[in-house]
């Protein structure tokens, strides 16, 4: 199959729409079920590149949760402890495969953004991973293969119309890529630059110590940024992205946006939040939204009289700003990657509030000395990678 007709493009009025290869080769994908659309394939193919690179860089199964051509979460398959399993709502599923752990982490980092995601998996989808996918609101999945049991589980989703795509893991695209804008074709070489620990060797701060676990987190953040709409930054910890700021015109707005998401990730681990008692039968999305509102500034939206009774069995106490700050101050050893240099030290000040200790950024700003000085003030270790990772 050399081309596949799509229902429409980004929007219903954009017809005709199709995908095809520009070198005459067959498409490297097989649609097993469903009818993926234009944006589905954009998410699937960008996500597949991300997880393929994560697997190559770390040796671990990888998963990502994509929305509107940027990842909401990305992770490798490290085991889940009791707290992680509970905040990702998989604590009722027993021991999970490494690939299932990767997707639970990727989906769970920012559950609101992951609602209706397109999933990319580095390895053959197994029954554990399919079982998690089955219970979540999702548009589809792409993987290099599926076990028979996994296919049977996914066939129960959306009355058998859930988008399931198989991709040839050996497919290699042409070295040049093209994009049309306003009838004009852009051409550039593909960004094939490998991201590995060698990029983290130029540590420019007084603190030169970046442990291997932090290096893995920095690699995860950088590979994630490679497929995130720029400007972008990514906070990572424990083998997964915990906060991604995408598509912002200002670097510090990226840092704030991603930092707020990272803060939410930690706040959800607070016993006060983990012990929330929800009414029976509440939908997963409504529960997730209620948690985010409860730990945010608009908490009265879920605590007001007449509102809380629809969500909680017992009215929760207000989670005060002072209590949240005290809990967040426990966060440490967070890694932060940036797709371009930090132009001002305010980025470091905001990163510190979310427990950042390790940073990877290209360097090259006229104010690099001020950024380094801010890192030194907090004992951070920062590596200049010398590479920019813009993605548009």
Walk me through the structure.
The protein is α/β, with parallel strands linked by helices. The chain has three domains: 170 residues, AICAR transformylase, duplication domain (Cytidine Deaminase, domain 2, 3-Layer(aba) Sandwich), CATH 3.40.140.20; 128 residues, Cytidine Deaminase, domain 2 (3-Layer(aba) Sandwich); 48 residues. It contains 14 helices and 15 strands. A six-stranded mixed sheet has the order 3-8-7-6-4-5. Strands 12-11-13-14-15 form a five-stranded mixed sheet, with helices on both faces. It starts with a strand and ends in an 8-residue tail after the last strand. The mean pLDDT is 96.
Q: Count of helical segments?
A: 14
Look at the helices and sheets and give the structural class: alpha/beta
Head-to-tail CA distance between termini: 28 Å
Proportion of residues in extended strands: 15-25%
What gross morphology would you assign? globular
Low-confidence stretches: none
According to CATH, what is the class of the largest domain?
Answer: Alpha Beta
Examine the coordinates and then state which fold CATH places here, giving the name of the CATH topology of the largest domain.
Cytidine Deaminase, domain 2
Task: Supply the CATH superfamily name of the largest domain.
Answer: AICAR transformylase, duplication domain
Q: What's the CATH architecture of the largest domain?
A: 3-Layer(aba) Sandwich
Number of strands: 15
The overall number of domains is 3
Mean pLDDT: 96
Order of helix and strand elements from N to C terminus: EEEHEEHHHEHEHEEEHEEHHHHHEHEHE
- What strand order characterises the main sheet? 3-8-7-6-4-5
Helix content: 25-40%
Radius of gyration: 21 Å
Largest sheet: 6 strands, mixed
């Amino acid at each position: 199959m050399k081309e596949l007709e799509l229902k429409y493009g980004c929007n219903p009025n954009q017809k005709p729409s199709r995908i095809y290869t520009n070198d005459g080769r067959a498409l490297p994908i097989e649609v097993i079920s469903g009818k993926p659309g234009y944006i589905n394939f954009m998410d699937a193919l960008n996500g597949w590149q991300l997880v393929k690179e994560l697997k190559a860089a770390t040796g671990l199964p990888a998963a990502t949760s994509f929305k509107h051509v940027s990842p909401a979460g990305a992770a490798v398959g490290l085991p889940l402890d009791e707290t992680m399993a509970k905040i990702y709502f998989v604590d009722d599923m027993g021991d999970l495969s490494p690939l299932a752990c990767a997707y639970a982490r990727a989906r769970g980092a920012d559950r609101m953004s992951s609602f209706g995601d397109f999933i990319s998996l580095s390895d053959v989808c197994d029954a554990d991973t399919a079982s998690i996918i089955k219970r979540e609101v999702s548009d589809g999945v792409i993987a290099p293969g599926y076990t028979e049991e996994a296919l049977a589980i996914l066939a129960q989703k959306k009355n058998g119309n859930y988008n399931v795509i198989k991709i040839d893991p050996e497919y290699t695209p042409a070295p040049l890529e093209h994009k049309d804008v306003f009838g004009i074709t852009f051409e550039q070489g593909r960004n094939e630059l490998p991201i590995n620990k060698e990029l983290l060797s130029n540590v420019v701060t007084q603190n030169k110590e970046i442990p291997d676990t932090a290096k893995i987190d920095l690699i995860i953040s950088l590979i994630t940024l490679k497929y995130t709409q720029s400007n972008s930054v990514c906070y990572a910890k424990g083998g997964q992205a915990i906060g991604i700021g995408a598509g912002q015109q200002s670097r510090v707005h990226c840092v704030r946006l991603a930092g707020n998401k990272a803060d939410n990730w930690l706040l959800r681990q607070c016993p006060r939040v983990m012990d929330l008692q929800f009414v029976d039968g509440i939908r997963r999305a409504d529960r997730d939204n209620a948690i985010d509102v409860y730990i945010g500034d608009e908490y009265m939206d879920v605590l007001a009289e007449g509102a809380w009774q629809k969500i909680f069995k017992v009215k929760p106490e207000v989670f005060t700003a002072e209590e949240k700050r005290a809990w967040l101050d426990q966060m440490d050893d967070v890694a932060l990657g940036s797709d371009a240099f930090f132009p001002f030290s305010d980025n470091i000040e905001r990163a510190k509030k979310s427990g950042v200790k390790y940073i990877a950024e290209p360097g090259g700003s006229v104010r690099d000395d001020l950024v380094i000085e801010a890192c030194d003030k907090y004992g951070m270790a920062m590596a200049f990678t010398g590479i920019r990772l813009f993605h548009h």
